[in-house]
Amino acid sequence: MSAPLANAVITGSTVTVNGYGTDESGVAKIQPMVNYDGIWRPAGDAVISTAIVADVDLCAAGVPDGPVSIGLHIWDNGGNKTEKPVGEVVIQKKYSCPMLPPACTPAANQAALYNNAKYQGYCQVIDIGDIADLATLESFGGNNLESIQLGAGVSAILFDGENFTGRSQTLTASSEDLGYQIVGANRVSSLMLSNVAPSPATPKPNPVTGPGEAVPSTDNSIVLSWQPANGAQQYRASIKGQDGFEATQEWQEGLSYSVGTLKAGTYTWTVSARNSAGEKSTTGSFTVQPGKSANLESINSPYEADFTKDISGWQSNGLWKRTNFMLNSTKHTGWIFGTDGQYGKDSSPVSGELTSPPVFVGYAGQQLSFQYASYTESSGTIWDQRRVQISVDGAAFQDVQLVSTDPRDRNLHESKPVDLSPYAGKNIRIRFRFDTLDGYYNDGLAWAIKMVRISDDPAKVCSENADDGSIDKARGIKLGTNIDGQICPAGDADFFTFTIDQKQSFSAAVSITSDVTNWNPSLSVLSQDGSTVLAEGKVNGSSSNINTILPDSGQYYLRVGGQFTGKSTVPGVNYQLSLIQDTTPPTVKLTKPVDGSIRLTLPIELIAEAVDSNGSVSRVEFIVQPAGVSAEMAERVAVDESEVGGWTGSIPKGYTNKLEGAAVFARAYDQAGNFTDSAAILLAGDGTIPVTHMDALPAEYGSTLVRLTWSSVSKEPVNHFELQYQINEGKWQGWSEVLDGSLRETSFFAKNGASYGFRIRAVTAAGAEEFSTNAQVRTVVEAQCIPDKYETKDNLPSEATSLESGNGQLHNICGLKDEDWTVMLLQGSKTYTFTSLPTELAAGVGLQIFDMTGQAMTDEAIPENLHSQTTLNFRPDSSGTYILRARAANDQLAGTRSIYSISYDQAAPFSPIPVACGALLIPLLTAFVKLWNRLRSRIH
Q: Is 647 part of any domain?
């Protein structure tokens, strides 16, 4: 591979891959491959050629940010494939991919597996049946499943162990993020697919114990839990005990039921599992023994416990201990369950409680908040549960909050405040209860509590003007509108909901309107399940902006949050949420340098002007494109994300690529993600000697006519250009003619299979620039062309393809002197306009119309040049069948990418002959062959 270069930083969705293969039997095809997690996967389509130049879409291939290996699988003509991808290079991807529509569509008896959430990334469709080890899916692998699409009527049972063992998850509907499910993301090792959901297995209860597997006491909070049952979709637990105590939970998809503290005595409980095929239950019992009575002195609120110091009155059991822990290389001190790297014990479930001394809540308006950190196996709340509980005046502890965190987030967080007004005038105790529920995947930081506060300080107490702090209370907002809101400083979040009718680009922004300067807002788009994060906003000062693509119609959610960087002086922060959609890009102009006649001493200052008619510009990037390098491979040298002081940047002192002849331009983005590039400035030094920049060519050129373009900077008028070329890296040869100084492009007929290098220089009255030592641009002309879908039948008038009014066709000029014939029914005395237009490389064709006898009805229309459109007007005298010939306007022109469109203007519906006679077209053409052969010589 010649591209990409090792360690290249890719800041877009695609990377250009250039390479070739050789084999004594010939190369059949080449497939780009990517590897970012230890598994090589195809990226993009295979190329049927001995060489490849392709823009590989890293987003479509599901490549995450970070290092990724790129290589090529090559097949010879005998069907043999390289054992592993060759030409491997490692690059760095640094680009946030937009949401893409699902790449796979499973049929009624299939499922589509994705290695990213939200049906993104690499996908593989599988049929109904059992797979005992997903590692046998070579391109997908085991423990890589993050989302799954089920075909109509398909059920799936997923297992985190091979051979259908371990945790199981039953699905009858698609899941866009298994991270919130029982089985978890990147955990599935085997699965079963069927059209009929099996009856659920009998659920297996976990033993009911206290911390350390001791008999639970009245001091302990009780959580009933069980293991997932194969086939079960929902579970429910019920409990009966002392003094007529009885409680039953609603049907739910989790594996636990928190009942709080219980009185001493014996209890029976039942767990049931169900799906559409039936229900199974199991009953067990346990005993609660009396706890230790203790008379603890009450503390008056406001109350603050900073666990960097030893705070008296706090009690712990299980694995809770006060110690140091690390977050992002920073040491903290607080209460932590386990260690900051592991919280399991002997592969068994573990639990524990951290409980405060009694605190007297003297008056309403106070709130509970705490600082914490946690990163466990998933973002969900099924496993590794973190419960905040409160006991009032010595009564049972009951849940008031269930905490969930992103396992990738290694930061301290402020909790969402708990309003303590209902407890005014009472003593409360606060409990932090952690429970793994099983003995698997217990690596990480279970729960660390650094500080607990009960206060009415404005930084910690907030009375919002709307009850929108959860998904089920989300406020509605329409696209194209704004809405005002208020958020509490300490860990609060507000939710909004909106709907779209189809896949579309989407923009949202939240801006702080309160007079605060130390508030960092956050904004997230959540999927239709209300939990999966589709996109995160980018913070810029007091605003956060999202620009993404929403993949489907339906309901979505927005989450507004944020955090102070210092002390708050207001009880609530006001903001405005905007869903103004904008598709108009900004305008941008590079104002410094004014031209390329500057000293090329680094650093070089860059300044741009950027304006957006629909709002504000979000950022400006400065980009350098060295001579001979494609725009896609240009290097971003600076980014300015603030308009304060103007949009500025520089080509840094450490820049190492050649500056002479390089193009510099600015790229401006608006808040909606639209962007525009400025006109480029060519760097030419002081301009005394002219500088010429040749635009890059693809590694393989898909036409025999190579189009060369360039730009030039010179203080003196350019008199002419001198162009040289070399074939197969041979001697340099001069162009057959001098190119006028006003020209900026020319074309060169080349031979299939040969490589070509080109270099150019400008000549003025004062002198000429030196030719570069090496070629400024290179390319290899394809060895042979790949025909279009109409070949080779459309090479003869007797096999002409039908061309309908208003419906154009795409043809290529495959092979020298290629001819393409089409046939159509035309109405007499009506004028028709036939048009051919090159769509990629040179494909200018001549057009001429004949009747069924082979008589030419028009002269041949010829394009102005081989890159130009051809137009032919024809007014038949009578209705009938006519044949159109399109052929290359130059016999030397051919190529896979020499593609042109052919069409003619729509006519009013008519029937020149009865519809039934439409079938006569085939025999008419067949009979026409004999006559055509006799007349063909005069046509040519």
A: yes
Is residue 460 a part of any domain in this protein? no
Helix (H, G, I), strand (E, B) or coil at 178: helix
In the three-class reduction of DSSP (H, G, I as helix; E, B as strand; rest coil), residue 741 is classed as coil
Q: What is the pLDDT of residues 243-291, one digit of tens each?
A: 899 999 999 999 999 999 999 999 999 999 999 889 999 999 999 999 9
The DSSP string of 565-607 is SS---SS-EEEEEE-----PPPEEEEEESSSS-S--PSSEEEE
**Contact, 57 vs 48, CB < 8 A?**
no
* Amino acid 629: pLDDT: 61
Residues 874, 844 share a domain: yes
Work out how many domains the chain is built from and give that number. Answer: 8
Pair 841, 703: CB distance under 8 Å: yes
- The separation between the first and the last C-alpha atoms of the chain, rounded to the nearest angstrom, is 46
User: In the β-sheet with 221-227, what is the strand arrangement from edge to edge?
Assistant: 204-205, 221-227, 256-261
- If asked whether residues 443 and 493 sit together in one domain, one would say no
User: Any residues with CB less than 8 A from the CB of 695 and at least 6 apart, and which?
Assistant: 630, 708, 709, 710, 711, 777
pLDDT tops 90 at residue 234? yes
* Domain assignment of residue 4, yes or no: no
CATH code (residue 597):
2.60.40
Confidence of residue 458 (pLDDT cuts 50, 70, 90): low
The domain in which residue 284 lies consists of 204-288
Distance CA 117, CA 217 (A): 42
Looking at residues 216-225, what average pLDDT do you find? 95
Torsion angle of C-alpha atoms 473, 474, 478, 482, degrees rounded to 10: 110
Domain shared by 314 and 409, yes or no: yes
Q: Please report which confidence band the pLDDT of residue 919 belongs to, taking 50, 70 and 90 as the band edges.
A: very low
- Sheet (strand 604-611) strand order: 587-592, 604-611, 647-651
**Quick one: 522 and 659 in the same domain?**
no
- The helix/strand count (H/E) of the chain reads as 1, 71
Which CATH number does the domain housing residue 540 bear?
Answer: 2.60.120.380
Give 619's pLDDT tier (boundaries 50, 70, 90). Answer: confident
Q: How far is CA 285 from CA 149, 211, 266, 785, in A?
A: 40, 18, 7, 77
Q: 914: which residues sit within 8 A by CB, 6+ positions away? A: none
Same domain assignment for residues 115 and 243:
no
Cα diameter, the chain? 117
pLDDT tens track for 290-302: 998 777 889 999 9
The DSSP line for 757-821 is: EEEEEEEETTEEPPPPSS-SEEEEE-SSPPP-TTTTGGGSGGGPEE-BTTB-EEEEE-STT-EEE
Q: What is the pLDDT of residues 316-360, one digit of tens each?
A: 999 999 999 998 888 999 999 999 888 987 678 899 999 999 999
Tokens encoding 928: 């026409």
Per residue in 738-790, pLDDT (tens digit) is 899 999 999 999 999 999 999 999 999 888 888 888 888 889 999 888 888 78
> 344 with 282: CB under 8 angstroms?
no
Q: Is the pLDDT reported for residue 368 higher than 70?
A: yes
Q: Give the list of residues 6+ apart from residue 645 with CB closer than 8 angstroms, or none.
A: none
Two structure tokens written together for 328:
């992002």
Q: How many CA atoms lie less than 13 Å away from 136 in the CB half-sphere? A: 9
- Whether the per-residue pLDDT at 920 is higher than 90: the answer is no
Same domain, 280 and 304: no
- Looking at residue 746, its amino acid is T
Tens digit of pLDDT for each residue in 814-830?
A: 989 999 999 988 888 89
Indicate whether 321 and 397 sit together in one domain: yes
Whether the per-residue pLDDT at 514 is higher than 80: the answer is no
The answer to whether the Cα torsion of 866, 867, 868, 874 is positive or negative is positive
Where are the extended beta strands (E) located within 329-440?
330-337, 351-355, 359-361, 367-375, 385-392, 398-403, 413-414, 418-419, 426-435
Cβ atoms of residues 448 and 332 within 8 Å? yes
Residue 475 belongs to some domain of the structure: yes
